[in-house]
Amino acid sequence: MAHDFLRLFTALVLCACGGVAYGQSGADLSVALTGPLNATFGDRVVYSLAITNLGPAAATNVVVTVVSPFEVFSIGSCANGFPCGIGTLASGQGIVVSLYVRTPYLFCPQCNDPAPLFVVASVLSDTQDPTQSNNSSIFETALLPVRKITSVPIVAPWSRLFLIALLALSALARLQRFAPAPYYSFKRTAANRGGISQRRRAAAA
Questions:
Q1: The Cα angle at residue 72 between residues 136 and 77, in degrees rounded to 5
Q2: CA-CA-CA-CA torsion sign (188, 193, 198, 200)
Q3: Which of 27, 111, 175, 193 can bridge 145 by disulfide, Cβ–Cβ 3.0-4.6 Å?
């Protein structure tokens, strides 16, 4: 008799707290977000998001949401962005979603302290979930500013010669474009004009 009363009392407490009572079933969705602890402004910070249904019931119409101060991109099943619907997860089934955050470039030689980047992931479904404490996950990455330029583009020697030759041809083309008319054509024109004048004087005489 005491055991029956204890079961009834436990069922009433679970119902009052939004839990699952005896004779009912629900899903237990769990989400875990992992990524790098440190990154640099301008990097593409990659994260891994694992969603698992711990059961006992299947979770239908599962939707994953990722929030970040910068734009979030993903590939695979969530290539269209977030919120992302991944359908139904059976009891014990899981899925891993790869995503990345594109951070802006920040060059600051005087900056020393990193800036925190918080990424928050959450999951929900149409199935009742009595344990919602594991339905969200947050990850913090320390973003460091770019304090100095460490990489310089390397130009091959043959490409330098090609660039010099190209500039020389361009300069030569400009000189030819604005050069005056040749001198021999001017002399020929003057000679022709002189012959015509002499013939006209002879004809008039």
A1: 75
A2: positive
A3: 111
